[in-house]
Design brief:
Elements (H helix, E strand, L loop, with lengths): L2 H6 L14 E5 L6 E5 L6 E7 L3 H10 L3 E15 L10 E6 L5 E5 L12 E5 L1 H7 L5 E18 L2 E10 L3 E11 L5 H15 L9 H6 L8 H19 L1
Antiparallel strand pairs: 1-2, 3-10, 4-5, 4-8, 5-6, 6-7, 8-9, 9-10
Organism: Bursaphelenchus xylophilus
Family: Belongs to the Mediator complex subunit 20 family.
Main location: nucleus
């Protein structure tokens, strides 16, 4: 039985969770139509925060809670700015990668602070990074403002918890970032209570400030994408950068 025929075998299911790089079926609400689309940029709902604890302390807390280490984890962010020749035509933007989605690049313009607005963004395959190299006459990568996060990924039942130390400019440590992902759901409204409870159990203070992408979606039946997580990382990176100025 093929992947698609397996999906059609369950016509009354609202959604079927499968491999992130396979296919997902959604039944459009109040209609009889089914659609199929690639889920390479879909993920479980995630809450990303900056921790005041050390990476070793976070790791110890996870292991005491019974979490199992899965392996290494990485996020990187490169800032691009236009050269003087094209400064009026191109704005600054950022390209981010997440090790859970090794084939994808997420691109962001300047982030909006308005909860009702979605920041300019796009998701592409890694070919986009190769294209950028061809525009070196008009675009400059600003390594001093770039970030790299290296750490580990743990599993705790249906949750994936990732943490690492953020380096600015590849050398200056700016703190620890932790990501809590509820892998069994990709709609914020349906799992935000459970996700909030887990975050609160580890980081009571940080749980009081919900990330902007989650606030936007907590009342809507919308799919959560990898770009929603990477927006949270980018906001934290920019906060770290502003504190260092």
């Amino acid at each position: 039985m093929t992947m698609k025929s397996q999906i059609l075998h369950y016509p009354r299911m609202t959604k079927i969770l499968m491999s992130r790089r396979e296919w997902k079926r959604l039944a459009i609400r109040q209609t009889d139509y089914n659609i199929f689309f690639s889920t390479s940029n879909l993920m479980g709902v995630a809450w990303v925060l900056k921790s005041n604890e050390s990476a070793k302390t976070v790791e110890g807390a996870l292991e005491r809670a019974g979490a199992t280490k899965l392996g290494a984890f990485k996020v990187d962010c490169t800032a691009y700015r236009p050269t003087l020749d094209v400064a009026g035509q191109i704005k600054n933007f950022y390209v981010l990668h997440h090790s859970a989605y090794p084939d994808s690049s997420s691109i962001f313009g300047e982030l909006s602070t308005d909860v009702t607005n979605v920041s300019p963004r796009a998701t592409s395959d890694l070919g986009f990074d190769l294209i950028l190299q061809k525009f070196s006459n008009g675009l400059l990568s600003d390594n001093a403002l770039s970030f790299e996060l290296n750490g580990f990924e743990y599993a705790l039942r249906d949750f994936r918890i990732r943490f690492g130390v953020a380096l600015m400019g590849r050398s200056s440590s700016k703190g620890v970032i932790v990501e809590f992902e509820f892998a069994a759901c990709n709609i914020v409204k349906e799992c935000i209570g459970l996700l909030s409870e887990l975050v609160n159990s580890f980081f009571p203070e940080q749980s009081k400030a919900m990330p902007l992408p989650l606030i936007r979606q907590k009342k809507e039946l919308e799919n959560y994408y990898s770009s929603d997580s990477l927006e949270q990382y980018l906001r934290i990176f920019q906060e770290m950068r502003s504190l260092s100025n």
